[in-house]
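Here is an idea for our session: we take a single protein and study its fold together. Which protein we use is up to you, so please pick one and set it down. Once you have written the record down, we can walk along the chain together:
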Amino acid sequence: MPWLHLIIAGLLEVAWAIGLKQTDGWTRLWPSVITVSLMIASFFFLSLALRTLPLGNAYAIWTGIGAIGTALIGIFIFDEPRTAARLVCILLIVAGVVGLKLASSSQS
């Protein structure tokens, strides 16, 4: 269950990062309210995961899911650059997240 909580927390991080862009510097009320709610939910699920998962691994995986998801949304939804270097860097983050998951699983 802690891994599911961590994945949910990471996906919520992607959602609030997108929401943050929509707040227009916190000048738009409803996007701001929704974004803060997503932030709270993301931290809540992260805190549940941290009950049993190692802090360093869980935090790195949470931010990795957020970074990968947000970068991919930027590419596919917001038409941000699709350079080879950027895609390679995203793959390196994926490799790091998978490596941390595997390292964390071998400690159990």
Notes: Residues 2-107 form one domain. The chain has one domain: 2-107. The CA atoms of residues 71 and 77 lie 10 Å apart.
